[in-house]
Amino acid sequence: MLLLFGSDGAHTLKTLTPRPVYALAIAWALLFPLLFFVARGTFSFDRFQYFNNQLGDIGAITPSGADTAYYRVERFIVYGIVLAAIFTIFKKSRKVLQRHWAVMVLPLLASASTIWSQDKPRTLFFAILALCLTGFGVYLLQRFDGDRILELFIFVGVNATLISYMLVIFAPSIGIRQFDMTRAWQGMFVHKNVLAGNSIYLLTAVLYTQKRSPLRRILMWSYSAALFILIAMSQSRTGWLTLILLFMYYCFSRLYLSSGAKDRLFGISFTVVAAAAILYLGVVFGGDIAVALGKTRDMTGRTRIWSSILPELFKRPFLGFGYQAFWLEGRGESLSFDLSSGLTRLGNAENAVFQIWLELGAVGTVCMLALYLQSLRNAFICLKLDPPRYVQWSCAIVFLATLGLLTGAKVMFPNTIEWVLFVIAYITLADRARRVTTRVGPALNYGAKVRCASDCKRQSSIETDGLAM
């Protein structure tokens, strides 16, 4: 097991060049768990009879009718591999988490919420999964350092894309949405929004990876085009908007990094004003924009859900109802919510802040927002000094995660790749920001900062080209 999950150092000592990620046995061993998390813990092809039909619903994680023995075995294999991987570098991971304790606050709070949860066994079970996801993110960061983490997620994304296209073409009853007339693509995912959202996360690795040769550029552009088609055919308006905003961020970040100090200040000022204008337009003309995108004025019922949830937030305002313990399919407080609101079969609040508040209260919400603000601060520090590609990728991940607070994404949701990616990005940016601020210092002028940034970038390049951990 140590050989499987350990370093490929024997090879790199001879060649001084790491083997491609797709040539590593560990990458193939981790492929199934990573695909499982990319699909948010449910593949369309093994449980489609519960989701892709006239009663299709992705609200609950483990609906009683769909929690089959097959699925339990599948999950056991996934988390068995995850725990084996974490165990191999447990001491090193513990040191990393001691330095970056903030990323452990939410999982530990989720575990503590077992004490006051409406459903203690459920909360404890999913809190353990959240701890595993956090540890898995630390493991991946230690095992695939530098730009190799981008290669890993390109490898995973290519496989996810191939599986999705195979299901759409050869098994359309699974790969294409069947329970309405939209015929939206969903591939290996159980919902079109999951396909679009996680395809966008996978696309970020392509944007920031190095395209060294003409053949590699052709392959990367082909893969990107395949992802674009999946996102377009998903018919997910949220996905479309997120993709547009990601490219706006990408273009801004490239311009920002290539500009001088005065131009950067102007760019930041312009961006703040533009963001405020867009937010104002969204608030004032949100209904008209939704109709223009093919939605209803209440954003397909979301505004009704949010207004109905508001009273629930203040029934247990400080600590919430327990992690993953509010939406209990007609039990506990969710039954009272169903009867008072007339909304049934909901599995989440369709809003990240509301969801965390329901589960972990105001304490959990403050911890989440503080974690996101710290990651944004670190990203801004890193972007000021020409960071290497994997750091720029981490900034993009933080951007998408923060954007998810506005688009209804879920924070620290069980079995999801988004939390794994956020953990990787948070630790990467925190380490980089500490290194930059330590070397630069507040008293250096801009020219000295640029020279120091070049030194940091050169050191990162040496680390990336060195031995893979």
Chain-wise SSE layout:
Layout: H1 2-5, H2 9-15, H3 25-38, H4 44-51, H5 69-88, H6 90-99, H7 105-112, H8 120-143, H9 148-170, H10 172-175, H11 192-208, H12 214-233, H13 237-257, H14 261-284, H15 286-292, H16 302-313, H17 333-341, H18 352-383, H19 389-407, H20 417-440, H21 446-465
Helix pairs in contact: 3-5, 3-9, 5-8, 6-8, 7-8, 7-18, 8-20, 9-11, 9-12, 11-12, 11-13, 11-19, 13-19, 16-17, 16-18, 18-19, 18-20, 19-20, 20-21
Mean pLDDT rating: 83
Proportion of residues in β-strands: under 5%
What distance lies between the first and last C-alpha atoms, to the nearest angstrom?
A: 15 Å
Give the helices and strands as they follow along the chain.
HHHHHHHHHHHHHHHHHHHHH
Identify the overall geometry. Answer: globular
**Biggest β-sheet description:** none
Count of runs of 4 or more consecutive helical residues: 21
Helix content: 55-70%
Instruction: Round the Cα radius of gyration to an integer and report it.
Output: 22 Å
Poorly predicted ranges: 7-16, 54-65, 442-451, 460-469
Q: Structural class, from helix and strand content?
A: mainly alpha
Count all strands and give the number.
0
